Automatic annotation (TrEMBL):
One example of a Gene Ontology biological process annotation: doxorubicin transport
Annotated compartments: Cell membrane
This protein's name: ATP-binding cassette domain-containing protein
Family membership noted in the UniProt record: Belongs to the ABC transporter superfamily. Drug exporter-1 (DrugE1) (TC 3.A.1.105) family.
Annotated signal peptide: none
Species this chain originates from: Sporolactobacillus shoreae
Taxonomic path: Bacteria, Bacillati, Bacillota, Bacilli, Bacillales
Amino acid sequence: MEHVDRTAPDSGDWAVEARGLVKTFGDNRAVDGVSLNVRAGTIYGVLGPNGAGKTTTIRMLATLLRPDAGLAHIFGHDVVKEPQIVRQLIGVTGQYASVDESLSATENLVIFSRLLGLGRKEARHKAAELLEEFSLTEAAKRPLKNFSGGMRRRLDLAASLIAQPPLIFLDEPTTGLDPRTRNQMWDTIRRLVRTGSTVLLTTQYLQEADELADRIAVIDRGRVVAEGTADELKASVGRSSLQLRIENPQKIETARKAVEQVLKVQSAVSPEGAKITAPLADADRVTDLLIALRGAGIQLTELSVQKPTLDEVFLTITGHGAGEDESKETDKSDRAGEVRR
Ligand SMILES: Nc1ncnc2c1ncn2[C@@H]1O[C@H](COP(=O)(O)OP(=O)(O)O)[C@@H](O)[C@H]1O
Ligand SMILES: [Mg+2]
């Protein structure tokens, strides 16, 4: 892919270095001392549920919001003191597409291209190429107000690819997308990094972070609660993970106490309240646990021992799930807005 070559100046190894970022809205500390290091040429995932502070963090790193405290450097440039340099090094695609409603997809991309200095013919060519890549060719002539959320997201990412910047922020790039489009998006993100960009993406999807990210920061209530590679995060919750589902959800606390006493670990209860997850160092203890549970009059409907997933990591670290309800809602609204062909 042809793109304007703007290599990062004197960047050292770090695309992002953030220390103790804070942003308060009223008495809500939306971002409460976030520190992140993103190595150039990698994909970094910021994983957390709705309201965790992901967008606010990105907005500060992208010079769109001034931090109340803390420091952030993008390729060595201070976001507060050198915002105009930082802006030349980054691309931001929002959770909501930043495109003009009344214009068609083609017109939007051509305008972006012209703004970035491409000639008229080149801009048309680039727009057509990107629309093809994102399977938007068919809808390209329609005004955007008829686009679904998923189509907008694709167009938004397409727009950010016109001038592939050294650092790309993707705020929940696949929330609400159907699986096929999500896979397409993942391929595009991987290609961005292969061709020299660094990507910082936020996600509510553990699987997405696991698939894509070289390193992951788990963020909850404005704080980084864990950081590392997907494997490191998984290892931090033990070699294997025990999952129990009980018949009577009202006994969940009793069951949980038994698990914690016998296994001598912290456990987590799933959002729907019937599943307990706990790290398991020694499989032999399961026998003791079953005896204890029977003694406490608790009936199991399911018991399994698995390798931990990032889901368990999240549950174990934060004590709650990662925004399942919200993603369902987004799916619904996306479908409602889908263009009928
Ligand atoms: N402009 C704003 N004004 C007031 N509160 C905000 C604003 N932006 C975000 N918040 C609040 O800050 C918290 C973090 O929001 P956000 O960064 O959007 O989280 P996420 O992107 O992880 O869902 C939430 O409680 C949200 O309501
Ligand atoms: Mg957000």
